[in-house]
Amino acid sequence: MITKENLLIHEIIGLEATVVKSNNEQTTGISGKVIDETKSMFLLNTKNGIKKIPKKNTEWKFSFDRNESTVNGNLLAKRPQERLGGQA
């Protein structure tokens, strides 16, 4: 089960995400469902189409199971399998 405590090592694809703060002001406020991720980007399915948003220098709010958690994107800037504890 995903919790605020284990979010960093959990699968993020499928979660609702919002950019809370970013060095790029144009991305602040963008929200949607995470449909894919790479080492440095999340792909969000938004109401305006698919958007690629950098993980670094971005603060993210994730919604899951009626809970929310805000995470510094620099902590997520790894390949998914590295973050989840796998080998790359």
Brief overview, please?
This protein has 88 residues and is mainly beta. 5% of the residues lie in helices and 44% in strands. The protein is built from 1 helix and 6 strands.
Task: Determine Rg (CA atoms, Å).
Answer: 12 Å
Extract low-pLDDT stretches: none
Structural class: mainly beta
The CATH class name reads Mainly Beta
CATH superfamily descriptor: Ribonuclease P/MRP, subunit p29
How far apart are the termini? 24 Å
Number of helices: 1
Number of domains: 1
Return the string of H and E elements: EEEEEEH
* Largest sheet entry: 6 strands, antiparallel
Average pLDDT over all residues: 91
Strand order across the largest sheet? 4-3-2-1-5-6
Number of strands: 6
Q: What is the percent of helical residues?
A: under 10%
Query: How is the CATH topology named?
Result: SH3 type barrels
Percent range for β-strand residues: 35-45%
Shape: globular
Assign the CATH architecture.
Roll
